[in-house]
């Protein structure tokens, strides 16, 4: 069901469709604003629940958003000092709450997009191609500037691609599909020894299709990749065809396992057992570890004799107090599985070295593992 926003300007009533990829509800009221608005005034109105419909220069809107962000980040820095001695799990919950509040406030700066994905603002760039990859509207609609900038960034990622040496080329992530920017888990997949017999493989929750492509490059002859998200299915099919593996890899839209059995089944589920605050967070957060547990419980029924299941998982949740290693090992045991071998690697992304990050200690201790699982005799 589509939602709308309305406001009155010059005694004229306006009614326009509202769109939010994150599922955010439309603001309670709309205030038309322009270049005279300051960042402090904007944040005050945002705190009051007002959506700020921008009618000034487009580039000035971007500068205003940056100024609002700087002010919020300063407030967050003060809170970090205050909460630095809290329990790590409480710190994580406060961190998520702060991120959600930050996103809500910054999301109050709005842009109207006209039919044909045109923006009728001074110095507005041509965003037709970027918007056409995400939005399906034929009439005018309103989005947050923050979301629109995310769409633009995703368009550039998709156009330029992400170099992945293990895949033999570039992977092109679509908007809303998790990008393979953390190369350590790809290195694990590329180096772990394959089962003695490995003609077939399943890739559960394929995303961009990068894991399937690496397995195909390693010589697996038939691979079925699955994902429940339509965008992910389209993204995986694009990357697979672009790198020449469409005769080896089939992509199906489904939640978990395809029909039949395989010699190798890989899964890189969301790493943190928490509730996503938006659809875009589903690649990161797995409520109650539902996908992780589901993969383990159903794995034995889909493995060929002497087959292996490869679980790629960070232990960040353990360092945040969200899941214990004992929990994971017990779920593996309950599924009738045993650990053949575990391959570990330390992450090397920028946040590991960011000492200002509230979760720095947990990120610094993080290890990503590839668990090679087999059915118990």
- CATH class descriptor of the largest domain: Alpha Beta
Kindly report how far apart the N and C termini lie.
52 Å
Count of separate structural domains = 2
Q: β content, as a range? A: 15-25%
**CATH domain fold name of the largest domain:** Rossmann fold
Q: Helix coverage percent of residues? A: 25-40%
Number of helices: 12
Overall mean pLDDT stands at 92
Largest beta sheet: strand ordering: 11-10-9-12-13-15-14
Looking at CATH, the homologous superfamily of the largest domain is Vaccinia Virus protein VP39
Largest sheet: 7 strands, mixed
Radius of gyration over all CA atoms, rounded: 23 Å
| CATH architectural designation of the largest domain | 3-Layer(aba) Sandwich
Q: State the total count of DSSP E strands.
A: 15
Using brief descriptors, characterize the structure shown:
377 residues, alpha/beta, Rossmann fold, 2 domains, six-stranded mixed sheet, 15 strands
In summary, what is this structure?
This protein has 377 residues and is α/β, with parallel strands linked by helices. It is built from twelve helices and 15 strands.
Structure, explained:
The chain is α/β, with parallel strands linked by helices. It has two domains: 3-157, no CATH class; 163-375, Vaccinia Virus protein VP39 (Rossmann fold, 3-Layer(aba) Sandwich). The chain is built from twelve helices and 15 strands. It has helices spanning 39-47, 58-83, 88-106, 128-132, 145-160, 183-191, 210-217, 230-242, 290-302, 316-319, 325-334, 360-365, and strands spanning 3-9, 12-18, 29-33, 50-54, 109-113, 141-144, 162-164, 169-171, 200-204, 222-227, 249-253, 262-267, 303-314, 337-345, 368-375. The strands form three sheets. It has a seven-stranded mixed β-sheet, with helices on both faces. A six-stranded mixed β-sheet has the order 1-2-6-5-4-3. Strands 7-8 form a two-stranded antiparallel ribbon. A hairpin with a 4-residue loop joins strand 7 and strand 8. Helix 1 crosses helix 2 (58-83) and helix 2 packs antiparallel against helix 3 (88-106).
């Amino acid at each position: 069901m589509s939602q709308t926003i309305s406001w009155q300007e010059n005694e004229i009533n306006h009614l326009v469709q509202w769109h939010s990829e994150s599922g955010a509800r439309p603001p309670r009221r709309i205030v038309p604003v322009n270049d005279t608005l300051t960042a402090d005034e904007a944040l005050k109105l945002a705190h009051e629940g007002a959506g700020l419909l921008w009618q000034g220069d487009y580039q000035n809107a971007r500068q205003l958003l940056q100024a609002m962000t700087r002010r919020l980040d300063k407030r967050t820095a003060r809170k970090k000092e205050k909460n630095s001695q809290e329990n790590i799990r409480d710190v994580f919950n406060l961190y998520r709450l702060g991120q959600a509040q930050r996103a809500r406030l910054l999301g109050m700066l709005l842009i109207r997009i006209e039919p044909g994905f045109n923006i009728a603002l001074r110095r507005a760039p041509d965003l037709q191609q970027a918007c056409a990859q995400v939005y399906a509207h034929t009439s005018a609609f309103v989005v947050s500037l923050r979301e629109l900038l995310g769409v633009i960034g995703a368009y550039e990622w998709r156009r330029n691609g992400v170099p992945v040496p293990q895949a033999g080329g570039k992977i092109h992530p679509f908007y809303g599909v998790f990008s393979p920017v953390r190369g350590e888990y790809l290195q694990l997949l590329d180096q772990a020894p394959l089962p003695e017999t490995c003609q077939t493989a399943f890739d559960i929750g394929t995303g961009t299709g990068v894991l399937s492509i690496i397995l195909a490059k390693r010589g697996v002859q038939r691979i079925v990749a699955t994902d429940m998200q339509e965008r992910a299915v389209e993204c995986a099919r694009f990357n697979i065809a672009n790198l020449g593996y469409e005769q080896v890899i089939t992509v199906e839209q489904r939640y978990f396992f395809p029909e039949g059995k395989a010699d190798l089944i890989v899964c890189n589920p969301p790493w943190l057992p928490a509730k996503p605050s938006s659809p875009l967070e589903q690649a990161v957060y797995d409520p109650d570890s539902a996908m992780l547990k589901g993969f383990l419980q159903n794995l034995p029924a889909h493995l060929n004799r002497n087959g292996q299941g490869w679980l790629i998982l960070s232990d960040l949740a353990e360092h945040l107090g969200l899941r214990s290693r004992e929990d994971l090992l017990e779920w593996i045991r309950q599924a009738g599985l045993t650990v053949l071998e575990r391959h570990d690697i330390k992450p090397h992304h920028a946040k590991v070295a960011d000492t200002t990050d509230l979760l720095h200690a947990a990120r610094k201790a993080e290890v990503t593992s590839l668990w090679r699982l087999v059915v118990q005799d």
